[in-house]
Specification:
The protein is an alpha/beta fold. It has two domains: 79 residues, no CATH class; 272 residues, no CATH class. The chain is 36% helix and 17% strand. It has 13 helices and 13 strands. Strands 5-4-13-11-12-10-8-9 form an eight-stranded mixed beta sheet, sandwiched between helices. Strands 1-2-3 form a three-stranded antiparallel beta sheet. The protein has a two-stranded antiparallel ribbon with strand order 6-7. The termini are far apart.
């Protein structure tokens, strides 16, 4: 009698489960799902060609399958469990760049997050920052650039054996060094980590591409310290000491962007921390220029309802959104505890959600904007800077 192969049996059961789920989904929601093909096609930009419109239709179609998919959570969790039992370190996704890769340190990243040295060097980022720095100086506004780090890796030791996407050539391009030579005030997170001999992965969630809140507080303190040191400010950095905060820990309460693609059984969930000031706070905040909210740090900037450990695959929000309620185009913050303080314009992406709440505690006013909300024509960041007229622009 042959040896029982539990991997094959598990795979067969999973395929059967998927077939049943797809059948139920299409039978019950066929109008909504196939309506997505039409909606995506007609909503494509008018100048799009036929193939682009068809592609738009299929994107909408795929999105609706995900939204209406029967047993969606069970399917994702089961798929991840099968991959774990099969010993796979690369979990395929319908979008290849978002296939999830488990590193040898236990952290997840995207397949597209493995750094491959490209031919030539793209200096557009450097030119953009130098351009903004020049604009600010011409208008007597200070400018400070934070060179953040991402959860990408080019370290062969962290990758599975024979993984083909490792960069073995390295690069001599010194981005921050070139900015400093041009007179830009810069703080480089990776260089700080190297100096303190800290592994960069300690700043990240295991299942997500973002920094965790403890890292956000650490980054905030170092930003304020470097602004004081390099630009002569007197920001009260002591307010950003972790000893000035109470920490609430929610165990196994968060699945990040990578974890949500492979489910909670593939490598487990992250603990989630709420880090709240133990000193008195008084904040006025407006999200996207709507109603002004007044209250404490916790009352205005923290959204506990986003922490749903019993619903880790929540489509609407994740625990990360507990800070600032997630991404917003514009957030206006006024710290009522600071008088005659500085006004900052904080240019961020989603990483800023765990930085801006803390950084706001050392400025009287801070306007946070999502850099992804600007373009080069009718909605330029340069125009917004001149409209806000801050004392300092902090770009992360």
């Amino acid at each position: 009698m042959g040896k029982f192969d539990y991997k094959k049996v598990t795979a067969v059961l999973f395929v059967g489960f998927i077939i049943v789920s797809f059948s139920l989904t299409f039978c019950i929601h066929q109008i909504q799902i196939f309506g997505g093909l039409y909606k995506g096609y007609v909503n494509a930009p008018q100048e799009s060609g036929i193939l682009d419109k068809v592609e738009s239709g299929f994107r909408e179609f795929d999105g609706r399958i995900n939204n209406f998919f029967y047993f969606r959570k069970e399917a994702i969790n089961t798929y991840g469990l099968v991959q774990k039992l099969s010993g796979k370190h690369l979990v395929d996704d319908v979008e290849p760049a978002y296939s999830v890769l488990k590193l040898s340190n236990g952290y997840l990243t995207f397949k597209g997050g493995v750094v491959v040295q490209a031919e030539g060097i793209d200096t557009s980022g450097e030119e953009w920052i130098i351009h903004l720095d020049k604009l600010c100086k011409e208008n007597k506004i200070d400018f400070f650039f934070v060179n953040k780090i991402n959860k990408n890796t080019a370290d062969e030791k962290l990758l599975p054996k024979f993984y083909p996407y490792v960069d073995k050539r390295g690069s001599t391009y010194n981005f921050t060094g070139n900015l400093q030579k041009s007179g830009v005030a810069v703080w480089d997170v990776q260089k700080e980590l190297d100096k303190q001999k800290v592994d960069k992965y300690e700043l990240f969630y295991k299942t997500d591409h973002h920094w965790h809140a403890r890292a956000g507080l650490w980054v905030s303190k170092l930003i304020s310290y470097q602004i004081n040191r390099q630009l002569g400010y007197t920001l009260e950095t002591k307010k950003l000491d972790i000893s000035q905060y109470n920490i609430e820990t929610y165990e196994n309460a968060f699945l990040g962007t990578q974890g949500r693609r492979v489910g909670q059984y593939y490598c487990g969930a992250d603990d989630f921390e709420l880090i709240l000031p133990n000193y008195e706070t008084d904040v006025s905040v407006s999200f996207d220029r709507q109603e002004v909210l007044n209250g404490t740090f916790e009352e205005t900037l923290i959204h506990r309802e986003c922490i749903t450990p019993d619903n880790l695959l929540n489509l609407d929000e994740t625990a990360y959104d507990a800070y600032m309620g997630g991404n917003h185009t514009i957030v206006d913050l006024h710290n009522n505890k600071i008088k005659k303080g500085k006004k900052a314009l904080f240019v961020q992406d989603s990483f800023g959600c765990v930085v801006s709440p803390y950084l706001s505690q050392v400025f009287e006013d801070m306007v946070c904007v999502d850099v992804r909300g600007f373009n080069d024509t009718d909605n330029r960041l340069e125009d917004f800077i001149l409209q806000v007229k801050p004392d300092i622009v902090i770009y992360i």
